[in-house]
Amino acid sequence: MALTSAHPAPPLLVSRLLALALTLALASARKIPASITPISRDLYHSSDSILGEIKALVARNSDSLTMDTVRASNKGYSAEMFVVTFNHAKETVKDGSKIKIMLSFGQHGRELITSEVALSLLYILTEKRRIAGVDLSSFEKILEHLVIKVVPMENFNGRKRVEAGELCDRRNGRGVDLNRNWSVDWGKKEKDYNPFEEDPGTAPFSEPEAQIMQELSKSFKPHIWVNVHSGMEALFMPYDHKNTTPDGAPSQLMRSLLENLNRRHFQDSCLVGSGGGAVGYLAHGTTTDYLYDIAKVPMPFTFEIYGDEKASTDDCFKMFNPVEKTTFDRVINKWCMAFLILFEEGLRILPGSQVASQGALDNWVPMGGEILERNADEKSGNENRQLEGLDLGMQELKTYFRLFIISTFLLMFMFCSRISKNRNRESGNF
């Protein structure tokens, strides 16, 4: 029944209508702006189709792939995550001697390109999908010594929101940034803090997605962890919450690995360093900082795989994802190749690694580039440079220590001799 002036609305109904209007107004004010460029449906899989392809891939390659479905919930909100494990040559190489690598894609819902890289990488590892100019048969020996876990879509609920039209949203299904929900320096807000970009949640690990990933860090105990994002091209190591990298030899090994990857594959075009120092702002409660400080993962990284610097800030899809096929294919090929080189560098550089890489991926054709070749002398020099550098460093320290001891002894001898002479003189004069 319609309300008219002859039948005034009851006070309770009026108050409810006003409250509803206020709620809608606030929701409208808080709404993330729509992206100018829509999702390229001819290039990008839907979230359901990506997971469907991966399930079929696992079924076809059960000798090397397994998939686990992990669920968690908290205060009425639940999340489901698929974890794919690649374990090649299970019978010939014991798992305890293998390098364990964790790759997480799609932590931010709007970064669709990252999950496309995950799908293509799984095809390459199992069904040898080609990369231009790469002989993947030479890579088999490296794969035998790896166990790789892949989370192709960490933020499934957030991805669904993006596919429904919220193309600028990077948060999970209840509005929390999963890369601010970890416990190291959690909750700190910079002056430019934006709750729609960086909401850290009500407490560290309040979100089921972060709880699942934390549990994976404890149970799998990876040697290398890569959190894959888009927005720029960069290879980051800790820290995100301060403008510095960790001290000591482990930090030097991380930097060395990233610099080798940047030189070999990107011709030194990527930013390399700490996220807090290189990206231009500090981030608190991030995955990478927790993995290094608390979970003690030896090499946790954040890779940024694409960004359109010319896109306007309200054109989110274009800013974070390629929108035409040539660029899309180039990004997929380039970063799948980057991960293969990362695997090789990890085997080469990690202490205690039982496999010395033979440079299987040294010669290849990057998309749009020239053939990269190095002669045998240069290859062997590059392979031995890390160990030689460490040996030379130890030798130099020993030399400096010996010189220090000798110098100290000589100074003490000269000092004692002078005191003895002075005493003799004083004794004679007296």
Automatic annotation (TrEMBL):
Domain spans labelled Peptidase M14: 43-326
GO molecular function, one term: zinc ion binding
Entry annotation: catalytic residues: E304
A Pfam family the protein falls into: Peptidase_M14
Signal peptide: 1-29
Listed PROSITE patterns: PEPTIDASE_M14
Cofactors, names only: Zn(2+)
Record-level GO BP terms: proteolysis
Transmembrane segments: 400-417
GO CC list: extracellular space
Database matches in SMART domains: Zn_pept
Keywords on record: Membrane, Signal, Transmembrane, Transmembrane helix
UniProt similarity note: Belongs to the peptidase M14 family.
Protein name according to UniProt: Peptidase M14 domain-containing protein
Phylogenetic placement of the source organism: Eukaryota, Viridiplantae, Streptophyta, Embryophyta, Tracheophyta
